[in-house]
Amino acid sequence: MRILHTRAELHRALDPLPRPVLVPTMGNLHAGHLALVARACELARETDAPVVASVFVNRLQFGPGEDFDRYPRTLQRDAELLEQAGCRLLFAPDEAQMYPVPQTFHVHPDPRLAGELEGAARPGHFEGVATVVLKLFQLVRPAAAVFGKKDYQQLLLVRAMVEQFALDVRIEGLDTVRESDGLAMSSRNGYLGAAERAQAPQLQRTLRALAETARACTDLEQLRQAQHAAAHALRELGWAPDYVSVRRRADLQTPQAQDLGRPDALVVLGAARLGTTRLLDNLEI
Ligand code: PAF
């Protein structure tokens, strides 16, 4: 696997090759990322294309006081894992390569999607995500890109951006990879102390219980109460939830009565702080 730090190196490496499959990451890779790479390898085999992973901790998607500075940077280990997983090229630019001049043009996603849930809790986050993803697409020119469903709202937003800007890239979404106790894999799990780590699967358990209730809900008031009770249960256990919410899968809007009981219509999403660590998860209902 070749590690490319500059745009020029990336372009030279890609020039003679079929359009690649991209796995964009912020590094500190775990089995969830490697599952994305495995799927990328399957897609790439169809056209004998290379798999390119990017590792870039994108300042634009972090708010003031968030963990940009302490976000783990583990490039050497990431490179080893990517190579073993079948990745052919690793694009690992520094900030001067990604943002050689201050990025004053930004993608502003539809606030009905980007202003809800994660976007409400982290103002500006999705502008930062959409801007860097568009830029990565422009630099790598992938035929396809693979994203995890763990960041469900991000996946929807990228899909919407691709559709509305008519970007020529296929977006593939992959199921969340979990630890044996159900905790969704995340680079931020590494921030958890031992007691917090033991408590962390509670978020997924709470979402699962809410999903069960939501499946049986016949009216919106019942659903509202179930969401309220789920957030309350987390609070009782010492969590600080930003949201625990059942939404429509298609647009992440609040369900209407006709959405209840419809198969494949809903998703339950939650984000909550445990100590100083913010965890998020979701389950399709
Ligand atoms: O999901 C992530 O790791 C990031 O949001 C992404 C897509 C790499 C953009 O920085």
Describe the overall structure.
The protein has helices spanning 7-14, 31-45, 75-85, 95-98, 111-114, 118-121, 125-140, 152-164, 194-199, 202-216, 220-236; strands at residues 2-4, 21-25, 51-55, 89-91, 144-148, 170-174, 240-248, 266-274, 277-284. With 285 residues, it is an alpha/beta fold. It folds into 2 domains: 2-174, 3-Layer(aba) Sandwich (Rossmann fold); 192-284, Pantoate-beta-alanine ligase, C-terminal domain (Pantoate--beta-alanine Ligase, Chain: A,domain 2). Strands 1-4-3-2-5-6 form a 6-stranded parallel beta sheet, with helices on both faces. A 3-stranded antiparallel beta sheet has the order 7-8-9, covered by helices on one side. Helix 7 crosses helix 8 (152-164). It is built from 11 helices and 9 strands. The longest helix is centred in the last third of the chain and has 17 residues, at 220-236.
Shape category: globular
CA-based gyration radius: 19 Å
Query: Taking all residues together, what is the mean pLDDT?
Result: 97
Order of helices and strands: EHEHEHEHHHHEHEHHHEEE
> Which structural class is indicated by helix and strand composition?
alpha/beta
Helix content: 25-40%
> Which blocks of ≥5 consecutive residues have pLDDT under 50?
none
Instruction: Give the second-level CATH assignment, the architecture of the largest domain.
Output: 3-Layer(aba) Sandwich
Sequence of strands across the biggest β-sheet: 1-4-3-2-5-6
- Given this structure, which CATH class of the largest domain is correct? Alpha Beta
Number of strands: 9
- How many structural domains does the protein architecture include? 2
What small molecules does this complex bind? Answer: pantoate
- The number of helices is 11
User: Separation of termini?
Assistant: 39 Å
CATH topology of the largest domain: Rossmann fold
Give the percentage of residues in beta strands.
15-25%
**Biggest sheet layout:** 6 strands, parallel
Could you state the CATH homologous superfamily of the largest domain? HUPs
